[in-house]
Write a structure and sequence with these properties.
Length: about 180
């Protein structure tokens, strides 16, 4: 499994993980968690920068409020180890994927020397030629030595799942009984 940025922040910072940037000491504590996770079988580190991912009470997930240097500090544990993959949901992945996010992925891969998988690549009706631009971006990044790859969603885009809205399983009698 990959080690989640939000869960590490929450473990180290408590409820404040949803509200503020981490201190130097808190980042050091999170780096130790990433290292321990990797030493016990983890395959990488994941983070999310998207605003639509919310906590149980509608608050931003902890990784959303993290400073970019915190992300690099945690991902650099993989550089130190010389192994592992980095997974990231860029801020504008669901919109017009902006240059700032492309630069972040490129820099993350370049600075750590680790593969960066971003979520998610697909055809969007509002951006008909974007898929070609993104393929070109990734090919160029790879030619420059930055291992940037996309994860492609192979399911409907209108599915939403949490334990309050289980529309994906609502037709299952066992699931309805469980809920």
């Amino acid at each position: 499994a990959e080690l989640g940025h939000s869960s590490g922040r929450r473990y180290v910072m408590g409820a404040e993980a949803h509200e503020r940037e981490a201190t130097v000491d808190e980042v050091a504590a999170m780096r130790k968690l990433v290292r321990k996770g990797m030493d016990t079988g983890g395959i990488g580190f994941t983070t999310s920068r998207v605003a639509h991912q919310k906590g149980e009470f509608g608050e931003p997930i902890p990784s959303f409020v993290a400073h970019e240097e915190e992300i690099f500090a945690l991902a650099s544990v993989l550089k130190d180890l010389g192994r592992g993959i980095i997974g990231i949901n860029p801020r504008t992945k669901s919109l017009d994927f902006v240059q700032e996010d492309k630069d972040q992925l490129f820099n993350l891969a370049s600075r750590t020397g680790r593969p960066v998988n971003w979520n998610e690549f697909n055809q969007r009706d509002g951006y008909p030629g974007q898929w070609r631009e993104l393929l070109d971006y990734m090919e160029n990044a790879q030619q420059l030595g930055a291992m940037v790859y996309a994860v492609m969603r192979c399911q409907r885009m209108d599915l939403h799942f949490n334990l309050r809205e289980t529309n994906a399983f609502k037709s299952s009698p066992i699931w309805r009984q469980f809920m």
